Amino acid sequence: MFRGMFAGRYGIDRYSVFLAVFALIFLPYPYIWIVGVIIIGYAIFRAFSRNFDKRRRELYKFDEINRAFAMQLMKLFHWFKKLFHNIKNRFQKLKIRLSQRKQYLFLKCTQCKKTLRLPRHKGKLQATCPLCGTSFMKKT
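The chain above was modelled as a monomer; its predicted structure follows.
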């Protein structure tokens, strides 16, 4: 019965399936269900169309948009991954710093603002920044 139904027709492709699934979003809502029915109608029209060239161009355009969307989504995913990695590193550094606060004094270099660690209870020490070479005296 269905064997010859799509003979000489374009058939079902990714874009038609996407349209049909996308249309399901609109169906449960009053007054907006008409949009869903129109989209499903267009998906069925595409499946039974005999204009192969036009349907292939539509599919190609859909794939281009889909690829661009996927790339933007991947960029966003990597941005969030990097953000959470940075937050995790900051909390790990803070945890280490809090566990060492009784043994060491943490201060910032006056020139480059790098955090330096000096041992506590050693009196006056001359600290030299390893990054910029600035020396200064500090009572620990």
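The first strand starts at residue 104 and ends at 108.
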